[in-house]
Write a structure and sequence with these properties.
By secondary structure, the protein is mainly α. The chain contains six helices and no strands. Helix 2 packs across helix 4 and helix 5 crosses helix 6. The longest helix is centred in the middle third of the chain and has 16 residues.
Length: 98
């Protein structure tokens, strides 16, 4: 294992051109992931499958539109308003939330 590490370090040092470490910006996407998961959970709890979500692009539209609390209850409460502002979403979601 030590030989492998030495070989790796040799190759990295030989091919590396940067003299200083390059800072890497890491974007925190945990809120978006949680919001995405909560939105899908709200939809599936109403009996909706994957197809209406994909066909209407609802997840991405919701993530752009929503600026409230990332809770199940808050998302469920705002669904009528979200549907009213998006005709395609309204057409696909009406039988589940109507």
């Amino acid at each position: 294992m030590n030989l492998l590490k030495q070989l790796w370090n040799f190759l990295v040092l030989k091919t590396s051109h940067a003299t200083e470490a390059t800072p890497v910006l890491v974007e925190d996407t945990t809120e978006e992931i949680d919001l995405r998961a909560l939105f899908v959970q709200v939809c599936t709890s109403k009996g909706m499958g994957d197809r209406p979500l994909r066909e209407s692009n609802a997840v991405e539209l919701f993530l752009e539109w929503y600026d409230g609390e990332p809770t199940y209850e808050a998302i469920l409460a705002c669904m009528p308003e979200f549907m009213a502002q998006n005709n395609v979403v309204n057409a696909k979601f009406q039988r589940f939330f109507g």
